[in-house]
């Protein structure tokens, strides 16, 4: 087939996560997947496994030069393994060296000025720039016209470093104007996770943001399918690393998948589903090591809609309780509280109220790339001026996800039977038909989730 003249009947954006592009062999398996599907015209890659964590460590400011150079050495070793397997083509080697030099420069300057947000983003973005450079070369060596393109040409965001918000209209215009035309001629290999503001400054979308990038590009380009290739063969009924009885789910609705991603199923970044819903793009999740196992399809409608579909969990939750006697019979207290949270770019997750207090957890969607805390001293100070604030940490959020949860008799009984011997710090149910959520102490969450999954999803 001559790919230069091929017009795909459908367009797929495929994203490959860190383990899928960890080394040459892993990248080569991804190439098999891409070459087998002519509809895949845009390939979004994460940084090779481990690289972003190393860059985050550097971004915190490593003052001891030996230690800093050792971290840079670890990154270089990961990237050079791939470059060597590619036969060290001169042009690619030169570009890779430039990227590694930039890492050195940014990390050296952060050693004296740790956490400076714009520079942290410039540093973190280099991981994806390395992996996309190498992966495009691998595709070309496999005989496929492919070009690494800088996602900052199209991924316009605001200037909020570490947790930037995409500017959807600009993104769509730029992607249509700059990328849509050439898609038939050569596949585009590009970076997840990173973007640029209107002044061209590099931004990042938050940890795990490559899924979100791929979904945004799929929406902007009007793709039919978004394929998320990772290290598991689909979305499971619970994290398979925690629950051995967890099973892959062949088909999920957008609503269920969005709830799972929001409430901690790390396999999808929490914001991934929304662009797909807006654009009606079907989402597939599969394993790049074993594509033959199939995976999960996420669509608008599904054939089966069971009451219990999955259990997910989010660790390290912070509960904020605000008390104020002014709340009693008063109007506007919640509006004021939410306005403060919004000014600090925090969206509320779970919430319960009593006459004089409100307890809430913070939505960690798009958690900051550099690992900065959502709950800043500035926020606490502002809240402290209007009410008494209590902060509890070390909690875990558990979500039972499914359908008709709020209108099916007996759900509460089945869930809370499991919790007989555990203290439940907070319960939320009713706003959505798709979830029941509660908070428990972080030290108790593993057995709670395992038992809950066993009772709800393993017993027939
Ligand atoms: P990638 O690097 O490809 O983005 P991630 O590590 O971010 O991959 O996500 C894949 C991991 O998500 C799996 O290895 C698995 O441990 C975890 N995970 C958590 N919950 C689920 C779930 N419900 N189904 C599948 N995987 C899950
Ligand atoms: N490389 C980034 C991270 O590790 C983004 C991603 O992999 O999705 O968070
Ligand atoms: Mg991920």
From TrEMBL:
<feature type="binding site">
    <location>
        <begin position="266"/>
        <end position="267"/>
    </location>
    <ligand>
        <name>ATP</name>
    </ligand>
</feature>
<dbReference type="InterPro" id="IPR005260">
    <property type="entry name" value="Asp_kin_monofn"/>
</dbReference>
<dbReference type="Pfam" id="PF00696">
    <property type="entry name" value="AA_kinase"/>
</dbReference>
<dbReference type="InterPro" id="IPR036393">
    <property type="entry name" value="AceGlu_kinase-like_sf"/>
</dbReference>
<keyword id="KW-0028">Amino-acid biosynthesis</keyword>
<feature type="binding site">
    <location>
        <position position="128"/>
    </location>
    <ligand>
        <name>substrate</name>
    </ligand>
</feature>
<keyword id="KW-0547">Nucleotide-binding</keyword>
<keyword id="KW-0808">Transferase</keyword>
<dbReference type="InterPro" id="IPR001341">
    <property type="entry name" value="Asp_kinase"/>
</dbReference>
<dbReference type="InterPro" id="IPR054352">
    <property type="entry name" value="ACT_Aspartokinase"/>
</dbReference>
<keyword id="KW-0418">Kinase</keyword>
<comment type="pathway">
    <text>Amino-acid biosynthesis; L-lysine biosynthesis via DAP pathway; (S)-tetrahydrodipicolinate from L-aspartate: step 1/4.</text>
</comment>
<dbReference type="InterPro" id="IPR045865">
    <property type="entry name" value="ACT-like_dom_sf"/>
</dbReference>
<dbReference type="InterPro" id="IPR018042">
    <property type="entry name" value="Aspartate_kinase_CS"/>
</dbReference>
<dbReference type="GO" id="GO:0005829">
    <property type="term" value="C:cytosol"/>
</dbReference>
<feature type="binding site">
    <location>
        <begin position="15"/>
        <end position="18"/>
    </location>
    <ligand>
        <name>ATP</name>
    </ligand>
</feature>
<feature type="binding site">
    <location>
        <position position="236"/>
    </location>
    <ligand>
        <name>ATP</name>
    </ligand>
</feature>
<feature type="binding site">
    <location>
        <position position="52"/>
    </location>
    <ligand>
        <name>substrate</name>
    </ligand>
</feature>
<dbReference type="InterPro" id="IPR002912">
    <property type="entry name" value="ACT_dom"/>
</dbReference>
<dbReference type="GO" id="GO:0004072">
    <property type="term" value="F:aspartate kinase activity"/>
</dbReference>
<feature type="domain" description="ACT">
    <location>
        <begin position="322"/>
        <end position="394"/>
    </location>
</feature>
<dbReference type="Pfam" id="PF22468">
    <property type="entry name" value="ACT_9"/>
</dbReference>
<dbReference type="GO" id="GO:0009089">
    <property type="term" value="P:lysine biosynthetic process via diaminopimelate"/>
</dbReference>
<feature type="binding site">
    <location>
        <position position="241"/>
    </location>
    <ligand>
        <name>ATP</name>
    </ligand>
</feature>
<dbReference type="InterPro" id="IPR047962">
    <property type="entry name" value="LysC_ACT_2"/>
</dbReference>
<comment type="similarity">
    <text>Belongs to the aspartokinase family.</text>
</comment>
<keyword id="KW-0067">ATP-binding</keyword>
<comment type="pathway">
    <text>Amino-acid biosynthesis; L-threonine biosynthesis; L-threonine from L-aspartate: step 1/5.</text>
</comment>
<protein>
    <recommendedName>
        <fullName>Aspartokinase</fullName>
        <ecNumber>2.7.2.4</ecNumber>
    </recommendedName>
</protein>
<dbReference type="InterPro" id="IPR001048">
    <property type="entry name" value="Asp/Glu/Uridylate_kinase"/>
</dbReference>
<feature type="binding site">
    <location>
        <begin position="230"/>
        <end position="231"/>
    </location>
    <ligand>
        <name>ATP</name>
    </ligand>
</feature>
<dbReference type="GO" id="GO:0009090">
    <property type="term" value="P:homoserine biosynthetic process"/>
</dbReference>
<dbReference type="GO" id="GO:0005524">
    <property type="term" value="F:ATP binding"/>
</dbReference>
<dbReference type="InterPro" id="IPR042199">
    <property type="entry name" value="AsparK_Bifunc_asparK/hSer_DH"/>
</dbReference>
<dbReference type="GO" id="GO:0009088">
    <property type="term" value="P:threonine biosynthetic process"/>
</dbReference>
């Amino acid at each position: 087939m001559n790919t230069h003249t091929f017009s795909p009947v459908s367009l797929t954006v495929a994203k490959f996560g860190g383990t899928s592009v960890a080394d040459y062999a892993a990248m080569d398996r991804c190439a098999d997947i891409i070459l087998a599907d002519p509809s895949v015209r845009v390939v979004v890659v994460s940084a090779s496994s481990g690289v972003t964590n190393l860059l985050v460590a550097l971004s915190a400011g490593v003052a001891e030069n030996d230690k800093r150079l050792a971290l840079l050495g670890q990154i270089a070793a990961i990237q050079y393994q791939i470059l060597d397997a590619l036969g060290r083509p001169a042009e690619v080697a030169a570009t890779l060296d430039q990227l590694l030099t930039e890492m050195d420069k940014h990390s050296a300057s952060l050693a004296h000025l740790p956490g400076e947000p714009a520079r942290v983003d410039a540093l973190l973005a280099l991981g994806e720039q390395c992996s996309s450079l190498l992966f495009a070369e691998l595709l070309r060596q496999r005989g496929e016209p492919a070009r690494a393109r800088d996602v900052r040409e199209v991924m316009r965001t605001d200037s909020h470093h570490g947790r930037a918000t995409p500017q959807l209209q600009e993104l769509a215009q730029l992607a249509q104007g700059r990328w849509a035309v050439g898609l038939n001629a050569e596949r585009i290999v590009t970076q997840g996770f990173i973007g640029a503001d209107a002044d061209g400054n590099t931004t990042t979308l938050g940890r795990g943001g490559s899924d979100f990038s791929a979904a945004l590009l799929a929406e902007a380009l009007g793709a039919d399918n978004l394929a998320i290739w990772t290290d598991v063969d689909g979305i499971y009924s619970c994290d398979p690393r925690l629950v051995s009885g967890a099973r892959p789910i062949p088909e999920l609705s957008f609503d269920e998948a969005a709830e799972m991603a929001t409430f901690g199923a790390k396999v999808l970044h929490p914001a991934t589903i929304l662009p797909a819903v807006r654009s009606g793009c079907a989402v597939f999740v599969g394993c790049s090591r074993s594509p033959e196992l199939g995976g999960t399809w996420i669509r608008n409608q599904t054939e089966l809609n069971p009451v219990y579909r999955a259990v997910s969990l989010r660790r390290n939750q912070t509960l904020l309780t605000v008390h104020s006697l002014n709340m009693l019979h008063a109007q506007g207290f919640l509006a004021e509280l939410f306005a403060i949270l919004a000014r600090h770019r925090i969206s509320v997750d779970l919430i319960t109220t009593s006459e004089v207090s409100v307890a809430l957890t913070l939505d960690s969607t798009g958690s900051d790339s550099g690992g900065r805390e959502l709950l800043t001293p500035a926020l606490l100070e502002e809240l402290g001026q209007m009410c008494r604030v209590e902060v509890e940490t070390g909690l875990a959020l558990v979500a039972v996800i499914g359908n008709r949860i709020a209108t099916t008799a007996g759900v509460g009984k089945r869930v809370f039977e499991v919790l007989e011997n555990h203290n439940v710090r907070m319960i939320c149910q009713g706003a959505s038909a798709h979830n029941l959520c509660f908070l428990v102490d972080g030290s108790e969450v593993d057995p709670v989730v395992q038992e809950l999954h066993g009772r709800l999803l393993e017993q027939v």
